[in-house]
Amino acid sequence: MRRTLLIIASIIVSGIFLYFVLRDVPIQDIIDRARQADPFWLLVTFGMLTMTIVTRGIRWRGLLDNRISHKDAFFIVAITFLLNQLPLRAGEVARSLLATGRGVPILTAATSIVVERMLDTLLVVLSLLLALSQIPTVPDTVSQAAALFGVLGVVAFVVLLTFARYPKMAHSVLNAVLSVLPILKRLPLESMLDNVLDGLKPLTNPRRFAHAITWTLIAWAFSYIAMYTMLIALGITDVDMLMTSILGVSLASFSVAIPVSVAAIGPFEAAIAITGEIVGMENTVAVALGLIVHGMTVLAYIVWGVVGLLAMGVSLGDVLSQAGKSKNED
Question: Could you give the CA distance from residue 234 to residue 38 in angstroms, rounded to a whole number?
């Protein structure tokens, strides 16, 4: 029953977002724009999207201390992205389970995903800050607020890394807070803190930290390049293409984080439409860009996800079933 309600809610959310994005846009104009796309640059975009999976697989393998092969890392990440297109978004749970099938301890697999999430969130925030600061149409108040948010994000990350290196210090700070605000003792703050510190522990190793940071930058660079090549494919060259790519990918990343939607359909297109409005792009063009780049992204995830399932000898049904059981146990 819960799954059914979640699927229905996801469809409704996607439908609402799509309605507001498309309500003032002639569908034929979007179709015409898609037909005019340069096939060569569409192929290049697909290649860049493929490289985002490859590089994220390399990053993840390093966080697992190279306990799986490059091939398995690529296929498992591809399967993860495929499953995350479905309403239940069982990709990350499935990734942990598939990794354990390759001899990786479940805690190691889970904490590696926590580290990835934190690094990705930090980079997206900083990328958003960079883009907003370089686009002249963005009000100064917005740029300043983004700058403050970015600085706070970096400071928070450094503090968390320090706490992960010195967990006793973290618990001392928490105990001090609880002594001042005893009402907070009703919350499971100690266990939450331990989970966060465990997740960040791999980054206290200098080698793993350098590996994770380097491949995070490379992976996101390919994401930005994919958006850039899509702009070329659609002939959208009358804007700041670099900043549009960075801003578009950053906002789209936040939209994907919305837990209830079908493959982020709707929220993703809304994010690109907002990007277009900020950089001065015509609304119809921005909506077409959002739909086409999203379609290309989902296509890449489906292609490589299916290849991953075949290569690893598992079925989509089996993976979803195991992931569902794991979620229910949690």
Answer: 7
